[in-house]
Design brief:
Blueprint (H helix, E strand, L loop, with lengths): L5 E6 L8 H10 L3 E6 L9 H8 L8 E2 L4 E2 L2 H7 L2 E7 L1 H9 L5 H8 L4 E5 L3 H5 L1 H12 L3 E2 L3 E4 L5 E5 L3 H14 L7 E6 L4 E4 L2 E3 L6 H12 L3 E6 L12 E5 L3 H12 L4 E4 L6 E3 L18 E3 L3 H8 L5 E8 L3 H11 L4 E6 L11 E2 L1 E5 L4 E3 L3 E2 H20 L1
Parallel strand pairs: 1-2, 1-5, 5-6, 6-7, 10-13, 10-15, 13-14, 15-18, 18-19
Antiparallel strand pairs: 3-4, 8-9, 11-12, 16-17, 19-21, 20-23, 21-22
The structure holds cytidine-5'-triphosphate (CTP).
The site of cytidine-5'-triphosphate (CTP) has 16 residues, from helix 11 and strand 18.
């Protein structure tokens, strides 16, 4: 699982640094390639000799060594890694990571890293509890960095409380399960719909909605990161698409195009997640020329669009898993459950509009998952990236017996 995986470990100035050689040993035993980067103060707590011996690579601490003239590119190192771990992450480094400061080599590598970054804070309990530190941890998590939360116990100061860096075996397990997760949907085909649809009134006007497409894009990315080959049928959106992995984007504009795009792939899909805010109605007639302003009022007759999700539900095979979204403003759970049954879904994601920071346009969302048996799991307000992770975890748990 870890063979050949490139892992960058950034060590900062905290007594918990003494535990990192054990972690390096565990990783190297599994044939991972480990590169250590240390901040200047990390050297006060653990020796570079121990770490370079165990990792079988020179430890890096600065970009330029004036004695040898050697220059190490932080950008190359940031691109080299499959995963970066900052452990122990001191309060000082957490603050700098949050602010984007780059006053040492470790931080420049961190800012250049394109891979997932995990961080394991270690400090005294009052430093960890301090609102500034808590705010920094929260910001980093919201940006999608993975927190390896400190545990409670006796600290180096003699005080007892939260702030003790997680044990090397637990950190190793998080890294191992991250790479295992990367293969969870290997050989699976996933269909995702996202964004709004635009229904033309005339050549310059349309009926549409505020959907940004962000939730669906995050879901497509999460499945792709876990090994799936993803088809993303995407309505007109203005967000920047930083897609990686196997994601095939089918751009569409109208509900009919989205219907055609989705139905062309549905039969091959193992999993379908319909997040799109499809227009329920379209103008019956589309004027070929721009409608001129005339009378004081204007009536546009709308006719119903086909329901993509319901059509899929009616054609769904036993081996397919179908997820819908419900955006409700009242009788939320009851309405979502009704939708789950009428559209024959396996799971419905109830999107709350009543909570600040949830719904259209935000980077965060507050959802509940409801399954066929009626089991309802509410989640707290999270980044859309985290919601997408929660969804892939749930879909994996519910499909692993069916498909594997
Ligand atoms: N959906 C779809 N095709 C449509 C309308 C909706 O695939 N024509 C999907 C959405 O992508 C979402 C789910 O159905 O996953 C719920 O959409 P929503 O608009 O909330 O449900 P409706 O059935 O349209 O009910 P209502 O608007 O009355 O709440």
């Amino acid at each position: 699982m870890l063979k050949g995986k490139k892992i960058l470990i950034g060590i900062t100035g905290s007594i918990a640094a003494y535990k990192i050689p054990l972690l390096v040993r565990l990783l190297v035993k599994q044939q991972a390639e480990v590169q250590i980067v240390m901040t200047p103060s990390a050297h006060d707590f653990v020796t570079a000799l121990t770490l370079s011996t165990l990792s079988k690579r020179p430890v890096l601490s600065k970009a330029f060594d004036p004695e040898t003239g050697q220059w190490d590119s932080h950008v190359e190192l940031g691109l080299w890694a499959d995963l970066m771990l900052i452990a122990p992450a001191s309060a000082n480094t957490l603050a700098k990571m949050t602010q984007g400061l780059a006053d040492n080599y470790l931080l420049t590598v961190y800012l250049s890293a394109r891979c997932p970054v995990f961080f394991a804070p270690a400090m005294d309990l009052d430093m960890y509890k301090h609102p500034a530190t808590q705010q920094n941890v929260k910001s980093l998590v919201q940006r999608g960095y993975q927190l390896i939360a400190p545990s409670s116990g006796e600290l180096a100061s003699g005080l007892c409380g939260e702030g003790r860096m997680e044990e090397p075996e637990q950190i190793f397990e998080r890294i191992r399960s991250y790479f295992a997760k990367g293969q969870r949907f290997k050989d699976k085909k996933v269909l995702v719909s996202a964004g709004p649809t635009y229904e033309a009134i005339d050549p310059v006007r349309f009926v549409g909605n505020y959907s940004s497409g962000r939730m669906g894009v995050e879901i497509a990315k999460a499945f792709a990161a876990q090994g799936a080959s993803v088809t993303l049928v995407l309505g007109p959106v203005s967000i920047v698409l930083d897609l990686s992995g196997e994601i095939d984007v089918i751009p569409v504009t109208t509900a009919q195009e989205m219907f055609d795009g989705c139905m062309a792939f549905f039969a091959q899909a193992d999993i379908a997640v319909m997040t799109a805010a499809v227009a329920d109605y379209r103008p019956e007639e589309v004027s070929e020329t721009k409608i001129k302003k005339q009378a004081d009022d204007l009536t546009i007759k709308l006719v119903k669009n086909k329901d993509i999700l319901a059509t899929m539900g009616s054609q769904k095979r036993e081996d397919q898993f179908l997820v819908g979204f419900a955006l409700e403003t009242d009788n939320e759970i009851e309405n979502a459950k009704k939708k789950l049954h009428t559209k024959k879904l396996d799971l419905i994601v109830l999107n709350s509009l009543s909570d600040a920071g949830a719904g259209f346009g935000h980077h965060t969302n507050k959802v509940s998952f409801i399954d066929k048996s009626g089991e309802t799991k509410p989640y707290s307000l999270k980044s859309k990236t985290e919601v997408a992770e929660d969804l892939t975890d749930t879909v994996f748990a519910k499909t692993k017996n069916v498909n594997n």
